[in-house]
Amino acid sequence: MASAASVTSLADEVNCPICQGTLREPVTIDCGHNFCRGCLTRYCEVPGPEPEEALACPLCKEPFRAGSFRPNWQLASVVENIERLRLVSTPGSDEADTCREHGEKIYFFCEDDEAQLCALCREAGDHRAHTVRLLDAAAEPYREQIQKCLECLRKEREEIQRIQSRENQRIQVLLCQVATKRQKVIFEFAHLSQFLEERQSVLLAQLEKLDGDILKQREEFDVLVGEEICRFSSLISELEEKHARPARALLTDIRSTLIRCETRKCRKPEAVSPELGQRIRDFPQQAVPLQREMKMFLEKLWFELDYEPADICLDPQTSHPKLLLSEDQRRVQFSYKWQNSPDNPQRFDRATCILAHGGFTDGRHTWLVTVDLAHGGSCTVGVVSEDVSRKGELRLRPEEGVWAVRLAWGFVSALGSFPTRLALREPPRQVRVSLDYEVGWVTFVNAVSQEPIYTFTASFTRKVFPFFGLWGRGSSFSVSS
């Protein structure tokens, strides 16, 4: 068997002078030199002499005509044999590169049949009329198609990965929301359970009192009735005895006896006094607070589960320079001393106000505002449109994109087209603000007593932001979910 070195030496003898690779479809020109058909064809296509003029051999510079080169089948056979020897003499060579039918090296690809061919297959009648190209040349367009497919697939994979990341984040948010709702259900039902136990104790104590009063009046009734029965029994016995006596004895003091019996009237006692009876009839009224509390519980539970708690953080870029913002961006205090805040288009320059980060363009959201007002201070809470005026005077009314209420020392006002002072049972110190973007509701509720404060109805078309205003030395507010 030929050694690898000798095979390599033979292979060097059948190299193309143009591409320096093994001859592919060798052709011979007038001077006798051999070249790859493809290499010589491209050489002849290089701009130069006119078609009728002779070309120079790339190797010896002898003239030849462009159409005068002839296929050298014997040399092609030699090349195939050398390639076969190279495969045999090379350890680990892939025998799949040889034709199964002829055992020859595969050099060509039939694009019509998508078949790989050796030189003998190429000359067979089945492929003569087909488009047959060298393997490398035929593979190049497919490489380009594969590259385009790879680019598309990689983009699709990246898009799927982005979707996966986004949906995983969404799932985490939903899991957090479910966990929050679970805690709210547990807390609200625990609160309801405690309230029901307290009301049960109160109602049972009242029933126990009614029960004791009924038994006490029954005892009094039994005593009174016993006394009456005893008196009437005594009279009956006296008359029976009188009736059984002889005429003389019967007539003795007869008139006195009859007068005493005739004037004796029966007292008709009542077992249950009217007052106690009224208390028993009025007892169902004691359940009215329970009914009211249950209604409030169901409304609050529905509200807590329907609205998403908003994670509110205040935006320092919008804060008026007189407002001191805490490091966690959840608490604000008023100060007459101006802060060194750079001016920017987002900052309020006259109204001592601040907005929250983010804003909303859909959904139901709720947040809690805890207010601590010094004497004469005030706090404004609500929502504003993203295009609300930040510079100059700010008119707090819906026409200007502001839906808010003002809490001051001792009163609360709804800032509608004309401010309206609200009649509330108690001034709120914690206000629950709720936004239903699609329906267009901005609702304010006393978070402690659950007393409704006010509801604005609007038609939102732009992003809205939680809005806060503060005035008065020592006044402050904080936000939470």
From TrEMBL:
Protein localization: Cytoplasm
Q: Which domain of life is it from?
A: Eukaryota
Output one GO MF annotation.
Answer: zinc ion binding
Domain named B box-type: residues: 94-135
What are the protein's UniProt keywords? Coiled coil, Cytoplasm, Metal-binding, Zinc, Zinc-finger
Keyword presence, Zinc: yes
Q: Which GO terms describe its cellular component?
A: cytoplasm
For this UniProt entry, which residues form the secretion signal?
A: none
Principal subcellular localization? cytoplasm
RING-type domain location is 16-61
Q: Which segments constitute the B30.2/SPRY domain?
A: 292-481
> Which Gene Ontology BP annotations are present?
innate immune response
Q: List each coiled-coil range.
A: 143-170
Q: Give the protein family.
A: Belongs to the TRIM/RBCC family.
Q: Which PANTHER family match?
A: E3 UBIQUITIN-PROTEIN LIGASE TRIM (PTHR24103)
Please give the name of this protein: Tripartite motif containing 10
